[in-house]
Amino acid sequence: MKLDSKIPEGPIAEKWSKHKFNVKLVNPANKRKYDIIVVGTGLAGASAAASFGELGYNVKAFCFQDSPRRAHSIAAQGGINAAKNYQNDGDSIFRLFYDTVKGGDYRSREGNVYRLAEVSVDIIDQCVAQGVPFAREYGGLLANRSFGGAQVSRTFYARGQTGQQLLLGAYSALSRQVSNGKVKMYTRSEMLDLVMVDGKARGIVTRNLITGEIESHSAHAVVLATGGYGNVFYLSTNAMGSNATAAWRAHKKGALFANPCYTQIHPTCIPVSGDHQSKLTLMSESLRNDGRVWVPKDKADSEKIRKGQLKPTDLPEDKRDYYLERRYPSFGNLVPRDVASRNAKYVCDEGRGVSTTGLAVYLDFADAIKRDGRAAIEGKYGNLFDMYQQITGDNPYETPMKIYPAVHYTMGGLWVDYNLMTNVDGLYAIGEANFSDHGANRLGASALMQGLADGYFVIPYTIGDYLAKMPYDKVSTDHEAFKEAESRVKEINDKLLRIKGNRTVDEFHKALGHIMWEYCGMSRNEEGLKKAKTEIQKLRKEFWEDVNVLGTNEELNQSLEKANRVADFLELGELMVEDALNRSESCGGHFREESQTEEGEAKRKDDEFSYVAAWEYKGPEAPEELHKEDLVFENVKLTQRSYK
Amino acid sequence: MKITLKVWRQKNAQDKGGFKTYQLDDVSPDMSFLEMFDVLNEQILKKGEDPVHFDHDCREGICGTCSMYINGKPHGPKQTTTCQLHMRSFSDGDTIVVEPWRAQAFPVVKDLVVNRSSFDRVIQAGGYVSVNTGGVPDANEIPIPKKIADEAFDSATCIGCGACVAACKNASAMLFVSAKVSQLAMLPQGQVERKTRVEKMVAQMDEEGFGACSNTGACSAECPKEISLENIARLNREYLKAKSSSDNV
Ligand SMILES: Cc1cc2nc3c(=O)[nH]c(=O)nc-3n(C[C@H](O)[C@H](O)[C@H](O)COP(=O)(O)OP(=O)(O)OC[C@H]3O[C@@H](n4cnc5c(N)ncnc54)[C@H](O)[C@@H]3O)c2cc1C
Ligand code: SF4
Ligand code: FES
After folding, report:
1. What pLDDT does B247 receive?
2. What's the CA-to-centroid distance between A538 and ligand 1, angstroms?
3. Which chain B residues are closer than 8 Å to A20 by Cβ?
């Protein structure tokens, strides 16, 4: 299979304008003859569905929550990037493009990233017009902040609730199209299969989560906006329902899965407190602007702290190791996410971690409070400190916060070309569900930007190019392809319900998460990855023999929902490991211990690995086939990252 | 901690439903309320019984999905969401009664899960600014005083959980509706449709079967996002103004 990214010819700054001019248009009167399915109504899906409706297409949109307003996007805190240069501090489309390619450790496509930076400016205009209450200065203009170590202030925000406000904006636009009758919204509906007719994506099969009914929906194109797959790890900052099922089942129908091993692990999350832990809570990155990260120098002191015999505030300065400041004197506590995470793991592996589990480091505000006063710190981080106290019971004004890295975002996803179409005709993937723009590492505040760029400003153009070449004919859901897909879905559900084994779905999910975190987490090596592969295969076999899913299909059955998702995670997890094994270089969030510099930092191997790894499904229990899309850099010079 | 739970069990919308008592012997004070329910469900599953169904997703207090009526209060004793309530707010040996939201406009689906799609329909009636994608002015073209932007933000933080309805003896949705009406009425972008919006949203709210507001303030006192009663006052003003010079038919 030859992968064609379809990047338009010409200078980078002109590609998108030229492409928009060259794409075929659907005549306004004909748009109503086309049906589009949008699965997922987070930022990417809601913005796409609303925009399609406005253009005149007939849209069917789906989500598994009880309302589109509750998608995982709602939880994003920090902000959204855009190259507006309102602060006159030297930002530009080119700089945002450059930062994103560099931040992604040169593993993304220049063409896509440039377009992302280009349309970023329109997003902010759109959101403001919808009534999104971004933070403002006293003069009434929009406020910006610098985020995640960026050299310019290009991040727009709405207190600590940016994702919520952006999603509610997209949700309101979507609601307007629902009331106009252009979008039909299916809530509490889960896509369980993709339907292909004559080699084209022509519909989906869903389960109505309330009645259990298996339903078919036909359309001229299918857009997946189903989010990321961080929950493979069981514990992550993702919402509990976030899953890979839609993308994975499309993968099994032929869509390539790209760079599955690229996972972002966020350094500042609240540590695990016990076996009951169900999810991890992110503490905003901004805390590292004022907090100092440390652990005791001496293992013995850590042990005393873990046993409660010593208070961190009683440990003298000369017995503390501010390890980020020590190892990275110029960036200190503000090193990028992957570097901060990995270093926290190292000090905990050495036995110097704190908290009863030994898996936590301190983020200390004592110096900042001494320097700026408590009021100033409260002004900046008050709500975060309150949240921390609510969850942990500790007061961060008096004792240092405890933090530990957690899985946060997945850069990998369905392979798409410049039009955001997968290799399957008529199947698109947008938002976190695709692999396209972040390379091996995503910059802070860039996921919201990408989701909305894809949904508002890219796919409304590119989908027209495809539809314009399609006949209007509809495929009936009585077509045998739909019937086949329906019976396969029913078969899987029946099989899950019949096993009646001894272990619950959560037990399997936790076991999988443990393997992934241990061997395919912050630091990976060949031996561990091979071990993970066998362990996942074994676990998957046990799952299909011993899982216990009660109840029936014909009712609200949350165990059955979870079982379907975990069944897919058990397959995707293995592919992630396979991809991590194949990529024996370190890049961005993917750290292979075999490939590091003398100082222990990540080392890329550009000659060997400057490609997108896109995997093709080859049937149950068969190894997947690797296809490579070479990455070409014409505008950015490749350098090794250094934060010393 | 040992905890006794009296939980509302109801197989489906048609079922009459009733309380069932469960015993949990090993609850950690660090658990969230929902994690305590996870433990309960694993225990129930091991016995071969149907787990308690409840709604949840983000577990960070922002998606508004979780919805338990705990000891006679929506989201329990603290002014937060159920997912952000921790067991350290209870004592060893406590008995805790857990029910679904109760309101005509929020019919029970199963156990603690209710149907809140009425909220979506109220928003669909007019909770938006009618702009299409593209062709909008530059974001900094219309300055908005910080004070107004901040106030609009305060109203916009509503998470649509429905605790206000569950807390109200009349099951009124005034706090929810007023939060959205206020946000858009304060911002310049919301001016054009200001009157039609409030009329349409209030009409839809009535049609969904939410009760009348009697200004007791129980809603705001239980709202996890501290949406203030001022929003309701503003809604009333907006509504009167709209009615007296209606743009609507
Ligand atoms: C705690 C946290 C904080 C973050 N903060 C930031 C930040 O400050 N800035 C930033 O840029 N990014 C941030 N991110 C990342 C960002 O929030 C996400 O990457 C982004 O919101 C994903 O949007 P999406 O539309 O692609 O998917 P989602 O919002 O995950 O939406 C997925 C949609 O798909 C639906 N769905 C899924 N599977 C199915 C199925 N099988 N059938 C039917 N429907 C399905 C769901 O119902 C949902 O509607 C943060 C992430 C987390 C976890
Ligand atoms: S007003 Fe408060 S209680 Fe009511 S839905 Fe909004 S957040 Fe929930
Ligand atoms: S689960 Fe999202 S607010 Fe509680």
Report:
1. 63
2. 31
3. none
The b/e string for A16-49 (b: 16+ C-beta within 10 A; e otherwise) is beebbeebeebeeeebebbbbbbbbbbbbbbbbb
Specify whether A337 is catalytic. yes
The whole domain housing A538 covers 480-630
Amino acid at B241: K
Least confident of A372-381, A446-455, B85-94, B107-116: A372-381
Give the rounded distance of the alpha carbon of A418 from its chain centre: 19
Query: Helix, strand, or coil here: A183?
Result: strand
- Over residues B216-224, the mean pLDDT reads 97
Which strands sit side by side in the sheet containing A189-197, from one edge to the other?
A189-197, A200-208, A214-218
Cα four-point dihedral sign A552, A554, A559, A562:
positive
In Å, how far is B27's CA from the nearest CA of chain A? 9
Residue B108 in any domain: the answer is no
Position B111 in a domain: no
Quick: pLDDT tens for A380-406. 888 889 889 988 999 999 999 999 999
Best of B28, B87, B123, B196 to mutate (most A CBs within 10 Å, chain A): B123
- Report pLDDT digits (tens) over A502-524: 999 999 999 999 999 999 999 99
As a whole-number percent, the residues of chain A with pLDDT over 90 amount to 91
Tell me how far apart the alpha carbons of residues A528 and B177 are, in angstroms, rounded to a whole number.
Answer: 54
Lining ligand 2 with CB less than 6 A are: B 158-164, 175-176, 179, 223-225, 227
Q: Is A56 helix (H, G, I), strand (E, B) or coil?
A: coil
User: Measured between alpha carbons, how far is A266 from A287 in angstroms, rounded to an integer?
Assistant: 13
What pLDDT sits at residue A149?
73
The answer to whether A555 contacts B11, with C-beta atoms less than 8 Å apart, is yes
The DSSP string of A247-285 is: HHHHHHTT--EE-TT-EEEEEEEPPP-STT-----B--G
Domain containing residue A587: CATH number: 1.20.58.100
Number of helices (H), then strands (E), in chain A: 19, 19
pLDDT at B245: 81
Q: How far away is chain B from the Cα of A506, in angstroms, using its nearest Cα?
A: 8
pLDDT of residue A380: 81
Quickly tell me which residue has 């507001």 as its tokens: B213
Q: Is residue A10 pLDDT above 70, yes or no?
A: yes
Q: Kindly tell me if the per-residue pLDDT of A286 is higher than 90.
A: no
pLDDT of A148 higher than 90: no
Q: Where does the pLDDT of residue B70 fall: very low under 50, low under 70, confident under 90, or very high at 90 and above?
A: very high
Ligand 1: does its nearest atom lie under 6 Å from the Cβ of A71? yes
CA-nearest residue to B154 within chain A is A133
Q: Which ligand is nearest to the CA of A452?
A: 1
Domain range for residue B157? 116-248
Q: Ligand 2, from B63, B158, B165, B182: best to mutate by most atoms within 8 Å of Cβ? A: B158
Residue B145 near chain A (CB below 8 Å): yes
Q: How many distinct structural domains can be found in chain A?
A: 2
Q: What is the mean pLDDT of chain B?
A: 96
Residue B39: give its domain's CATH number. 3.10.20.30
CA distances B164 to B58, B65, B82, B101, B176, Å, are 20, 14, 14, 10, 7
List pLDDT tens digits, range A548-588.
999 999 999 999 999 999 999 999 999 999 999 999 999 99
* Chain-chain contact of A75 with B117 (C-beta, under 8 angstroms): no
Report, as an integer, the average pLDDT of A52-58: 98
**CA gap B144, A132 in Å, rounded:** 12
- Give the contacts of A342 (CB within 8 A, at least 6 positions apart): A522, A523, A591
* Residues A378 and A507 both lie in one domain: no
Check which CATH number belongs to the domain holding A308 and give it.
3.90.700.10
List the catalytic residue out of A202, A249, A292, A337: A337
Q: Tell me which H or E stretch contains A596.
A: none
